[in-house]
Design goal:
The chain is mostly helical and about 220 residues long. The chain has 10 helices and no strands. The chain has 2 domains: about 90 residues; about 120 residues. About 80% of the residues lie in helices and about 0% in strands. Helix 6 runs antiparallel to helix 9. The radius of gyration is 20 Å and the shape is elongated. It starts with a helix and ends in an 11-residue tail after the last helix.
Length: about 220
């Protein structure tokens, strides 16, 4: 079975994005605990492991000769948090820096509810086959229920990131410092699983409603 070249490029791009996301999440976590295991202090381990996202940024530049604005945004938040931690001398403030990022991302997602198209629609459509994407585009313009579903999913994602931001701050100042990176990553994974399952269940329920169409289903 021949695969459409555009579909192949889209799948390849999605796989690359997933790999880079794993690098940005797993590598800093693993590096922190490796450094701690060999006797590096908490402060230095946090600083060194926090520089790991630079690897993904460098790869994107080498491979594509371009840097996405989202990567620059992420890096700027992490650099700002690192500088604040260095200036205050508070390692707990340093370990809580990821909360700035997830908090801003959550607020931005919720803010797209008042944009022309909400986050979940904009983020998902490039990953869909062309025919499905065209159906989604038509549904967004014509179907009230479809627009409601897209906004509800976007709100759920935004709230999940806000919960993550608040929880990271609480964990940073209540848990032993060496536990916080692992706990923060585990929390984010659990929240993402929960919001994905909610999105699927909500979408299926809306799609099964009689005489209503969501994603092309009646």
């Amino acid at each position: 079975m021949n695969r459409d070249p555009a579909t192949g490029r889209r799948i390849a791009g999605s796989r690359t994005s997933l790999i880079l996301m794993l690098v940005e999440v797993i590598v800093p976590l693993a590096l922190f605990y490796i450094l701690r295991a060999v006797g590096v202090g908490q402060w230095a381990a946090l600083l060194i492991s926090g520089a790991a996202p630079l690897l993904a940024l460098a790869y994107r530049w080498i491979a594509y000769r371009r840097i996405e604005m989202s990567s620059i945004f992420t890096l700027s938040i992490l650099v700002a948090g690192t500088l604040i931690g260095l200036l205050t001398g508070d390692p707990r403030l340093l370990v809580a820096r990821e909360s700035y990022l997830t908090g801003i991302v959550g607020l931005w997602m919720i803010g797209t509810l008042w944009a022309a198209r909400p986050f979940i629609l904009v983020a998902t459509m490039p990953l869909l086959p062309p025919a499905t994407a065209a159906t989604w585009d038509a549904n967004w313009r014509q179907e009230t229920v479809f627009r409601k579903v897209m906004r509800a999913m976007t709100l759920a994602w935004g709230c999940a990131f806000l919960v993550d931001a608040v929880a990271r701050i609480v964990m940073a100042y209540t848990l032993p410092l060496d536990i916080v990176p692992l706990a923060g990553t585990a929390l984010l994974v659990l929240l993402l699983i929960a919001v994905v399952q909610f999105s699927k269940a909500y979408g299926r329920r809306a799609a099964s409603a009689p005489t209503r169409r969501v994603g092309g289903a009646r």
